Amino acid sequence: MAQTIGGTADDVVLDKSGNVIPDRRMRFYLDTSRNTEFTTFFSDAALTQAVSLVKTGSTGHYPANGLPLYYDDAIGTLYGGAERLVNSALVAPAAVTVIPSRGPFLNASTADGRYAPKAVHGDSTYLEPFPIWAASGSRAAVAGEIVLCYGTAVAAVSLTRLTTAVTTAGVGQTLAKLGVYTVDGAGVLTRVAMTASDTTIVTTANAAPTLTVPAVTIAQGQRYALAFLSVGGTTQPGIKATALGVGVGAILRRFGSGAGPATGRVAAQTDFPVSIAAASVTAMDDAVLLLGRPT
Fold first, then answer.
1. Is residue 61 part of a domain?
2. 279 & 186 share domain
3. Disulfide check for 238: which of 67, 138, 166, 275 has CB 3.0–4.6 Å away?
4. Which of 265, 253, 260 has its CA nearest to residue 290?
5. Which domain holds residue 170?
6. Is the pTM of this model over 0.85?
7. Same domain? 169 vs 103
8. Which CATH number is 231's domain given?
9. In whole angstroms, what is the distance from residue 176 CA to residue 162 CA?
10. pLDDT per residue as tens digits for the range 16-72
11. Does residue 83 sit in the same domain as residue 144?
């Protein structure tokens, strides 16, 4: 079996400051310490046409020619990134990040430069529409507002747990839930699972509460949205998030990964409705941390 990486300018290579890295060789390794380099890549799924060099283009995408690469998925996890300049000399990568913008490509985490076949930011058994490593800030919850974070499953994922991260504690909430929606081609959301209400998840600061949901499977290629809702309260909790920048949410609503928005919100709700019309979702300029997992 062949595993695909890159292609169609989907993967952007960044340095630790978030700048693209143009015109650099991509290096991959079999171990976390990057002692054993892996170079056996091919330009075809049959693994017959060897590729001698993997390189970023002038915009920081790889491969430079925009075509996908393949390797034997029996190899398993690869580690790596782009070579970098140190004192004007090219050296092997430390923790360089690859940001996949769409498709069932190789994903990575900033923590160790890990690449995992058919993964969502490192683990194909998770739904992670917004990567954990990018959650560097906080967003204050709004009472009665559903917050949505959209994604597309690159592998079939069976869920029984939903997780978020609370930065500052709320006070007096009467309902707090997490949920899962599927999204159709018209942007209509259909609820497929939700947790029972547990207000303790929003009343403890610096915590990552996990709630159970009835088992549900999100099919490969299915557009979905993970959801957060709290109702009532005299002090609203802060949820781990990052600011996308003014107007970015609206742009992603039109041009986001797959089709439809990447983040959104629905005001004036007392619970998760069975269905949400696309027109009811307002784009927002923050992405909150929500995670779906099997156990």
1. yes
2. yes
3. 138
4. 265
5. 132-293
6. no
7. no
8. 2.60.120
9. 13
10. 556 666 777 777 777 766 678 888 888 777 788 888 777 777 766 666 666 667 777
11. no
Tell me the C-alpha distance between 256 and 13, whole Å.
19
Cα 240 from Cα 244, distance rounded (Å): 13
The residue among 66, 88, 116 that closes a domain is 116
| Separation between Cα atoms, residue 58 and residue 22, nearest integer Å | 5
Lookup: tokens for 270: 């007392």
The token pair that represents 48 in the structure block: 């017959």
Can you give the C-alpha Rg of the chain in angstroms? 20
Mark whether 141 and 80 lie in a shared domain: no
**For residues 260, 262, 268 and 273, what is the CA-based torsion angle, rounded to 10 degrees?**
70
CA distances from 279 to 34, 115, 186, 189, 273 (A): 48, 37, 10, 11, 14
Contact present, 148 and 211 (Cβ < 8 Å): no
Contacts of 289 (CB under 8 A, 6+ apart): 130, 132, 135, 149, 164, 165, 239, 240, 241
